[in-house]
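Appendix B. Chain record.
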Amino acid sequence: RWAQERGYATQAGPEALEAFSFARLETIARLGNLIESEWTRPAQHALLGRISLGELIAVTTDHDLLHLAQTREALELR
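Structure tokens predicted for this chain:
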């Protein structure tokens, strides 16, 4: 559903990867300035329920790695 809503099929691969990488680098830069209490502060995620920022980053990282593996696999099939 998200792929359709966000028009992923119409994006050029290299530009999409560059935009993704840039966004992640911005996020990493912001996270680098956090103090310990900000990493552990609880929040409510719409799908995951109660979660800390540190836990959310771990989930996001795993999700990113999954998509990168899928991309590698798709490129190998070409």
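Further analysis of this model is presented in Appendix C.
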